[in-house]
Design goal:
With 257 residues, this protein is mainly alpha-helical. It is built from ten helices and no strands. The protein has helices at 19-54, 56-64, 68-93, 97-128, 140-143, 148-160, 162-167, 172-183, 188-220, 230-254.
Length: 257
């Protein structure tokens, strides 16, 4: 089945030779766009793998601070959304507009659930301070038992005047330990990748939800159907790529430790 027919129900744009030509061009366009999306995320994946190979301990320790259960739930949510999106395309192709609209609504609900879970995950990280630039000089042991502020104060003083700090109530062993912490690669490296990659993915989830809502309205108004379903198919392809990116993000960020 093609997305167009020669019936009068669908008229191709004047700059295309035929309805089939318009469909083929639209399909080619969306695939070119998706290739640019893959290249963008691919660059981040390559950067992540390079720095992970250079500083495996940093990434392992950083990964252990993430809630893999939340990541797993979000993975299941997006897998369900992929199924409902594929089902919606199938129902539109068969002319079952009401069922297709329900599937699209479920896909939007899954996108919303994903972002709500991500909101709680982000909120917790900002609350405890595990964000780029704020966590860079903090030893894991300093985060336990409310010792973060004390540790940050000692490290700041050490950076300003190590000799003075050593004379004032800090023994040589502790100074040595703090120096070792500072000399290690900053943990902000892992969180930099985490927030950029998941944040950019989240932007795509929100954009995808708006696009799905757009085709949802078109489906309710019967602007798409067996004769013309290019918008639904194009949005579906975009959504599947968004889901695919998360399938790679989840193990790289949450399970690497």
């Amino acid at each position: 089945m093609t997305s167009v027919s020669s019936s009068s129900e669908f008229q191709h744009q004047h700059h295309f030779k035929s309805a089939d030509h318009q469909y083929a061009s639209s399909k080619q366009g969306i695939w070119i766009f998706l290739c640019t999306e893959i290249l963008m995320f691919g660059g981040l994946f390559v950067g992540y793998l390079i720095y992970h190979s250079l500083y495996p301990t940093v990434f392992k320790n950083g990964s252990e601070t993430l809630d893999w259960k939340m990541g797993a739930v979000n993975t299941v949510v997006l897998l369900i959304s992929s199924f409902t999106m594929a089902a919606a395309i199938n129902y539109v192709q068969r002319g079952l507009h009401k069922v297709a609209a329900i599937m699209l609504a479920l896909t939007i609900a899954c996108a919303g659930a994903f972002m709500v879970i991500k909101y709680f995950e982000y909120s917790h990280k900002f609350h405890v301070g595990t964000v780029p630039g704020k966590f860079s000089l903090v030893d894991p042991a300093c985060s336990a038992g409310g010792k973060r502020a004390e540790c940050e104060s000692k490290i700041s003083a050490l950076l300003k005047n190590p000799a003075e700090l050593e004379k004032n109530h800090v023994n040589a062993e502790e100074v040595s330990r703090l120096k070792a912490v500072i000399s290690q690669p900053k943990w902000e490296m892992f969180y930099g990748f985490y927030f950029v990659m998941t944040g950019l993915h989240g932007v795509h989830v929100v954009a995808g939800a708006f696009l799905i809502f757009w085709v949802f309205i078109k489906t309710l108004r019967r602007k798409v159907g067996p004769e013309y379903y290019t918008p639904v198919e194009g949005v579906g392809l975009f959504w599947h790529v968004v889901d695919l990116v998360w399938i790679y993000l989840f193990p790289l960020l949450y399970l690497v430790g």
